[in-house]
Structures are given as structure tokens and as C-alpha cells.
Amino acid sequence: MPWNSNNGGGGGPWQPKGQGPKNPNPWGGGPSGGGGGGGGREPPDLEEILRRSQEKLRRVIPGGGGEGGFGRLGGLGIGILAVLGIIGWGLTGFYTVRPNEIGIERVFGQFTSLTAPGLNWNWPYPVGRIDKPTIGVQTVEIGLRMGPGGRGVRDVREESLMLTGDENIVDVDFTVLWLVDARRPQDFVFNLRNPEGTVRAVAESAMRDAIGRRDIQPVLTGARLEIERQVQELMQRTLNAYGAGIIIQQVQMLKVDPPNEVIDAFRDVQAARADQERAQNEAQAYANRVIPEARGEASRITQRAEAERERMIADARGEASRFNAILDEYQKAPDVTRQRLYLEAIERIFGGMEKVLIDPGEGRQNGVVPLLPLNDLMRSRVQDQGKR
Question: Of all residues in the chain, what percent carry a pLDDT higher than 90?
Fold first, then answer.
């Protein structure tokens, strides 16, 4: 070995063989004595350190003895160590994907395939790389921040204050539920640097667009479901255009109120509008009750008038027919018909009257003839029998 200094008493590489140095230290040293003893401390011997290292290496390598054995077995040992290193490096390529994750394999930075939950293998670092995004539902809060463990809420007014279409300001707090698209998780990994920040920015922009298209009254009352649906659709279209690999599951509006500075005035306005709606509903109910009654009464009067008209027309037609019939009979026998009409008229006139007969004949006092009221007597008799 070139570093061996045990043979021939040579001085190593620093001096020619056979010429021993007075001071074997190649770096030079101070005087070894003099001055009453106690010279300076010599530096360590580098050759001695190398020799001891060579002896330890020979004991570790099998068959390590002379220079020939070390040369023959040194290459085999290095090969074994290289193979073991390669095997160990390959074993580091095994990885586990949890049930709520999906594996994304890369080779030299390029996407190669998706892996299902379980034990998988890919080229180890630095050739390959594994990304394992979570597939579960995540929540982004806009306009507020929840404290640790859901305790305490902090209002973020720069996110929640929005302008309506009629130039009023509302305070809107809402949450967005989203998750990674299991069909394209590579888009989520490669196209987004800050997924939560992107979702928050898109959600705030979509909500401002939806609020800005409406007046404040429907925003505060009955348009929440429509606004949530519109914001969800707009967010999904925007993220799809980004190629974000994100699915928006739901948008939930937690609070929609006027700003705190004017909330009392808005509540008074709401109360007045509620009273107005109540009065309108009462008036409508009264109208719904009275109008049908009036229409029914009008219909009844109209029908009665129609019936009276039909009766009078029928009576007139009957009288005309009777007159025509009498006329026909009169033309056939005028004297008889005239006498009959006279008698019928007398009968009709005197039928319900008190009658007194006066006979102007001679021999009668005052010409008065007593009349027995048989009709009255018969009527009284019938009534008396009914009482019994």
C-alpha cells in the first residue's frame, strides 16, 4: 500500500526511503527539548491515523489481509453495498393511500396515473413523487371566522358588506361546502396553488354578483334559496373554467342583515311593511267575501226579473189567445156571446161583495127583498165543526 510506513524504516511520502527524519512530523515541529524541559506539544501524526484506518477496514472486509486480497474482495463488497442500496431505495417507493384520499403518481414531475386506497408503489424520490389530496367535504367561511373548536365567531366586514342593486348595503355571512373532484384530482393538485383561498375569492365574487342584481327587500326576505342556487352555479362555472378540479356541493347563507349602524331603522321599515301587508290581506279578504255576495244578489235579482218577464209575456199571450177565441165566438153568435160576457162580468164583480136586492115591484115595502146568505152560513158551520 502506498500509505504503509511499516517497511524499510521509510519516512512515508514526505521523505525519501531510508532517510529517517529527525522529526517525522511532515508539518514540522518545534524543538523536542531544551530550555529546562517542557517543549511545545507536537501535532497528531497523519500517517498513523491513516494506517489505523486501513487496519480497521481490513478486519471488516472478508478475507482482508494483504494488498491483493483487499483489491479482489473490495470490488465485490462495493457491488453488494450498491445492490443493497438500490433495493433499499426501491423499497422507499411503497406508500399507503387512506380511504378518504386518492393517490396521484408522478415520474420526473409528470402525471402518470391515479391510485386507489391501499398499498401502492411508485418510483422513489427523486425520480417519482406522490400527492395524496383529501376527497372529503371541506368548508370555507366568508364574512366570518369560527374560533378553535367552533367556539366564538369573528366578523370579517371587508368580506361580508355588499352593495345591492338599489344601492343599499347588506351584511352577508355564508359558507361554501366543496370537495375535490375524484374524476380529476390532478387538476386540483397541478392547477391550484392555494385551493382554499381560490374558493373563498370565487365565492365572494359570485355572491357580490348575485346581491348586486337584486333590490334589498327580496335579499332580506324571500330570495335566499334562489341566491344560494345562483351562487353555487356561478362558482362551479368559474372553477371549471380554471380547471380547478373542485365540486361545489352547497352554499349556505347564515346571516343577511343590514349594517349594525342602521339595523334599527331597517327593522322599523320591516314592521311597517308587515303592517301594510296585513292591512292589504284583510282588505283582500273582505273583498273576497263581499264581492261574491254582491254578485250572487245581482244574479238572483236578474233571474227573478227574467222570470217575471217570462210570466208577464206568457200572461199577455194567454190573454191575447183568449180574446181571439172570444172574438171568434162573438163573430159566430154575437147576442149569445154578449149575454155570456155580461153574466161572467157580473159574477166576477159581485161574487165577493155584500149584496142587497131591491125589487121595485108593487106591493113590496121599500122594494127590499131579504137575502139568505147561504155562503156565510156554510162557512161558519165548517169553522164550528173544525173547532170541535
Answer: 29
